[in-house]
Amino acid sequence: MRFKKILLATDLSDRSRRLIDGLRAVPRTDDATILLAFADATPTIEAFSADAFSDLHRRIAEAATIGLEAQLADLEAHGFKVQAHIVNGGPREAISGLTESHECDLIVLGMSSRATRSGLFVGSTTRWVLRQADVPVLTVPIHGENVPTRWSRVATTTDFSDDSDVGVGLATSLAQQLSAAMNVIHVVELPRFAAFGTISPSALPTEQRQQLEELQRGRLAQIYDQITEDTLHTVVSSPHVPEGIIRAATEWGADVVVVPSHGKGAVRAMLLGSTSERLVELSPVPVLILPRAFLKKRAAAAAAAAKPAP
Fold first, then answer.
1. Which one, of 181, 185, 187, lies nearest residue 231 by Cα?
2. At 68, which helix (H) or strand (E)?
């Protein structure tokens, strides 16, 4: 996977400038273009007098221009070809409109921690993008430790569905392009029961849990050793799939987690509703989410290419 047109959504905060570090690790074509986008969600004129609205809009536009110019200069200093866009309206409209009109093949969003959530593209907008986007979405944590500028360890996830198989193949291709180590993670989702009004993990015996993990580890090796011989296979048990994935990826030292979305099993459940936000909020490293529409398109293209010529 190499990306040609990348939409970088910014709120112009100092933290959002860390997205540039995350972007440096993304594999790109030689002629790749970065669309640096800011959404000007100025209230409509009905909320103010004409003079007050004009002054407010002017001040916001001036501040946005200064902020965009600074971030544009940072990107260009790292060798990126950049187009800056100030879009009137909310962030959802800005992201969807620019992605469609410029045929972007990757959306990059900053992810703040729950305690410092102030970024424009965090929260409901992030959830909306994860559910609606039909191109890959890269979420970059803009808090805590430094963002990796090179992906030397690529982790991916599987629930053994067809979509996951395509995703693992794409993640493997990505790792090979970057000469990176590869780890395929599967989470054995432990059953839960209601106790005292909460959902708690069941007391599954250790021996039984270890047997389940060993069974799935063998299944991973049988399926994915056919893709690459140098892939690590990790199986963990957890009552919560996002926590299990992040724990395994963090312990291994992953620089990025590639997640094929909307599979038939645990991965699908993980990426619907609030758990998708939970995954990207938990991750201390970038998360590259591959939407189902994207996976289906790539699978169809691979099948067409594999057909013998008439």
1. 181
2. helix 50-77
Which domains are present in the chain? 3-141 (3.40.50.620), 153-306 (3.40.50.620)
Instruction: For residues 9 and 103, give the distance between their C-alpha atoms in angstroms, rounded to a whole number.
Output: 15
**Identity of the residue numbered 152:** S
Asked if residues 243 and 192 have their Cβ atoms less than 8 Å apart, the reply is no
288 in helix, strand or coil? Answer: strand
* Alpha carbons within 13 A on the beta-carbon side of 124: 3
112 is written with which tokens?
């703040």
Q: Decide: helix, strand or coil at residue 2.
A: coil
Other beta carbons within 10 angstroms of residue 120's beta carbon come to 20
* 270/286 Cα distance (integer angstroms): 17
Q: Six-digit token pair at 76?
A: 């260009």
pTM of the model as a whole = 0.82
pLDDT digits 0-9 by tens, 210-267: 777 777 877 777 777 655 566 788 888 887 888 899 999 999 999 999 998 764 444 5
Cα distances from 282 to residues 143, 155, 196, 244, 253, in angstroms, run 12, 15, 26, 11, 15
For residue 234, give the amino acid letter: T
**Residue type present at position 10:** T
User: Mapping DSSP to helix (H, G, I), strand (E, B) and coil, where does residue 199 land?
Assistant: strand
Which residue type is seen at 170? Answer: L
